[in-house]
Design brief:
By secondary structure, this protein is mostly helical. The chain contains eight helices and no strands. Helix 1 crosses helix 2 (31-46) and helix 2 (31-46) crosses helix 4 (63-70).
Length: 157
Amino acid sequence: MRATGLDVFDKTLQTTHIWLDELMEEIGPDRQVAWHVLGAVLRAVRDRVPLELVVHLGAQLPILIRGTYYDQWSSPGAIDKSGTLEEFLARIGQGLASTRPVNVRNAARVVFGILSPHIDRGQVEKIKHSVPEEVRAIWPDGPGTAGSTNSPASEQG
């Protein structure tokens, strides 16, 4: 059954639900929180990588997720120079301030793990190598590894 009557909208809704379901398996059964986590992590990555990678990643995201990825993007090409994992996680934590407490390190790791099987592998590698080494260290090594490790439960960034 088609939800919207337009295949492109139905496809992006279906894909978005799949990504959110994968995320909720790790962070809990709250779809609203999962949506906020997905957006906060994607925006933190977006603001940390070079413009060319921002655009290439955005082009590979489902349309609905692409909207949250580009949301609040005010200065294209301005790279967040935060060099530590703590600074990166703090940025995500700011984006999650209005949600229930979430383990920000785990949230980032899980979103990275979701991106890996759904985005071109070469693109994932370019993004991974453009973020600080400490951030890269929490990115799962391969597809399907979103839930491969657990982090301390109350880290907020």
